[in-house]
Amino acid sequence: LHPKLLRSKSNNSFAVSVPTKHLSCIMDPSSTFNLIYSIMKLVILVWDVTFIPYAIAWDVDITGILGVLAITSCTFWTCDIFKNFLTGVYKEGVLVTELRLVAKRYLG
Q1: CA distances from 88 to 92, 99, 101 (A)
Q2: Fewest Cβ atoms nearer than 10 Å: which of 76, 78, 83, 108?
Q3: How far apart are CA 41 and CA 94, in angstroms?
Q4: Distance of CA 68 to the CA centre of its chain
Q5: pLDDT at 108
Q6: Is the pLDDT of residue 15 over 60?
Q7: 3-state SS assignment for residue 96
Q8: Exposure of 76 by Cβ count < 10 A (0-12 exposed, 13-18 middle, 19+ buried)?
Q9: What is the pLDDT of residues 21-75, one digit of tens each?
Q10: 65-85 and 32-57 are packed helices; what angle lies between their axes, rounded to 10 degrees?
Q11: Residue 59 to residue 107: CA distance in whole angstroms
Q12: Quick check: pTM over 0.85?
């Protein structure tokens, strides 16, 4: 990360602030893992977009493998919310890995 310039409160001079070490659990959004994860999200999304209307329209009994897939899909999307908070973001070309700033980016 680039050092931040902070204005000193006592005078008008600037000081360089070196960022503190952040949590190592924050993932790089351009990593191979995130690429594979995005492909997996696409596959699950296509399944959901296809299966949910089909199941509702024809009143399909969701048991057996369909029940397992339905629960897996719901669990996956719930975990995806938390995973997004642990994935860094790029802001003005700089990778942001501070948990507070990443959460702020996703919340608003």
Answers
A1: 13, 8, 9
A2: 108
A3: 25
A4: 24
A5: 86
A6: no
A7: strand
A8: middle
A9: 555 789 999 999 999 999 999 999 999 999 999 999 999 999 999 999 999 999 9
A10: 140
A11: 36
A12: no
